[in-house]
Design goal:
Helix content is 37%, strand content 19%. By secondary structure, the chain is α/β, with parallel strands linked by helices. The chain has two domains: 173 residues, HUPs (Rossmann fold, 3-Layer(aba) Sandwich), CATH 3.40.50; 88 residues, Pantoate--beta-alanine Ligase, Chain: A,domain 2 (2-Layer Sandwich), CATH 3.30.1300.10. The strands form two sheets. It has a six-stranded parallel beta sheet, sandwiched between helices. Strand 8 and strand 9 form a beta hairpin. It is globular, with a radius of gyration of 19 Å. It starts with a strand and ends with a strand. The mean pLDDT is 96.
Length: 282
């Protein structure tokens, strides 16, 4: 089992990338913040199917966290992550520090609109997609992959990144990967480790409520009525609900019925101190 090359400086990254492409090999990038779980590994395996060489970035991006959020306590398990990536045959791990990504005097921002201003995550985390946009743009420019793999769990993020890469002609195809769940339906997330035993038992209610709500909508029930019932079910499980919405699957614009186009249901809520998000196709 070969250990992947680990680059922590831009010069090391550029040398390693040049080695990977000596025979014009295609490159797939899987951007992560580490604390890897089986959902991340599914992205790596998809990357392996889409390109000859696989690069995984591990960088906890401070620009995605508001002052009251969990940047300092976000799980960091780089040694264990690299060991898991070695098992998967990853070729290169890009693991820069904050000063490499945001050197002193860094003064550039990207302000995404479109799906970034849909009134979902952006309503509760107004800083978030600007932070995502700048770090993803930098990663794509640094690694210059042919494709980049993003999980559908962060569905709004996937749409924001896809739009940004297209709008800025970054030359990378953005590929969405199916969301991976625990056996009881809870979407895999690095933040699930924060859940207490009672909270963990209640957490799959998010998925169950979405499935039930989607079933009612597909059976012809009014969208607003079905969503209200779903919100009540989530609240009874102990969640402080941020949103449960059905949106156009591509633009994330509000829709009045399934006749308005492909639909996606998205949810976010807090149980205890942990905020969880999820989504399903309707």
């Amino acid at each position: 089992m070969a250990r992947p090359v680990v680059a922590r400086t831009l010069s090391a990254l550029h040398r390693a990338r040049a080695d990977l492409t000596k025979r014009n090999a295609t490159i797939a990038l899987v951007p992560t913040m580490g604390a890897l779980h089986d959902g991340h590994i599914s992205l790596v395996r998809l990357a392996r199917r889409r390109a000859k060489k696989v690069v995984v970035s591990i960088f906890v991006n401070p620009q995605q966290f508001a002052p009251h959020e969990d940047f300092g306590s976000y799980p960091r398990t780089v040694k264990e992550d690299i060991a898991r990536l070695a098992v998967e045959g990853v070729d290169l791990v890009w693991n820069p520090d904050v000063k490499t990504m945001y050197p002193e005097g860094f003064a550039t921002a990207i302000v995404p609109e479109g799906p970034a201003t849909a009134g979902l995550e952006d309503r509760f985390r107004p800083h978030f997609f600007g932070g995502v946009a700048i770090v993803v743009a930098k990663l794509l420019l640094q690694v210059r992959p042919d494709v980049a793999i993003f999980g559908e769990k962060d569905y709004q993020q996937l749409k924001v990144v896809t739009r940004m890469a297209r709008d800025l002609d970054l030359g990378t195809k953005i590929v969405g990967a199916p969301l991976i769940r625990e056996r009881d339906g809870l979407a895999m997330s690095s933040r699930n480790v924060y859940l207490s035993a009672d909270e963990r038992r209640a957490a799959p209610t998010l998925f169950r409520s979405m499935k039930e709500t989607a079933k009612r909508i597909r059976a012809g029930e009014d969208l607003a009525t079905a969503l209200d019932a779903g919100r009540a079910l989530i609240a009874r499980a102990g969640f402080d609900l941020d949103y449960l919405e059905v949106r156009h699957a591509e633009t994330l614009a509000p829709i009045a019925s399934l006749k308005d186009g492909p639909a996606r249901m998205l949810v976010a809520g807090r149980i205890g101190s942990t905020r969880l998000i999820d989504n399903i196709r309707v």
